[in-house]
Write a structure and sequence with these properties.
Elements: H1 2-14, H2 22-31, E1 80-83, E2 89-92, E3 100-101, H3 129-137, H4 147-151, H5 163-166, H6 171-178, E4 200-203, E5 211-214, E6 242-245, E7 252-255, H7 273-277
Antiparallel strand pairs: 1-2, 2-3, 4-7, 5-6
Length: 284
Amino acid sequence: MEVDSVHSCIENKIKNKAIHLPSDYGRYTKEARVRGVEPYELKEISYNFVKDYALISLVKYPSIRPGKKTNDPTVNEIKVIKYTPDGTIQAKLSFYGEFLDLPGRITNSTVANLSDFPQLRKEPIKIKYTKWQHLQQLKEVIPLDCGPYYDNLLHEEKAIKENKETSVPEKGNRKKNNKQSPSKGKKRTQPLQPVFTNNTKIINKPKGGKKYSWCLCGRSKKQPICDGTHKIAQLKITHKPVRFEVEESKEYWICNCKQTKNRPFCDGTHKSKEVQDASSIIRQ
């Protein structure tokens, strides 16, 4: 098939080539054809090329299914489909069968022009902010004149939450905040994930026989001991503290990376590469 030959030529052309911009793909695609032959014809399209075909008032058939009732043929059973100039659609359920008219009710007697359909989108789809950030990192290894392309990519704005949504309320306001109902129209925050660090803390000579609460959510300001932050309803924290007791009064190394298998005591997991690499998500 021609399409297989074209794809093979293009893949061989762009192999081991430096690709910095989408236009590089277009240039190599045109040059992929063998010398002495006209280059491949390339047509660039953008978001305004895509139309919205969901308007039932402009289409002639609401569906191309060759059946209406239960157990009737479905779309994936169509073997051949034919579109006629007058807008009629016929289909074959077998390669050796006859073309049959679609049983669906015709909703429009005329065929609408493509120009009659509105555009599906008014602007290009925005990429996520995190992806835009990652693309910005490419500017360190690509030519300088390619940088403006990545700067001008449409992207979602960084989600900056107000301090009152994530900060710990004062003791006098906790009772009031816990009674707030999400039905009042205020947007609820997402559950907070545990915060990990690659450090280890010491509890200096805790009293033997006394019980302590080890912070597991990572939001306590008295790390590694729980300060009750997980009880604030607005933060929607699901990670509860771990209760533990020491036998005698001496220094204990308490895990602060939350990855130990000997909770709550440190087992050296914070020295692993995975935890060290997680330093970028340490709470500020």
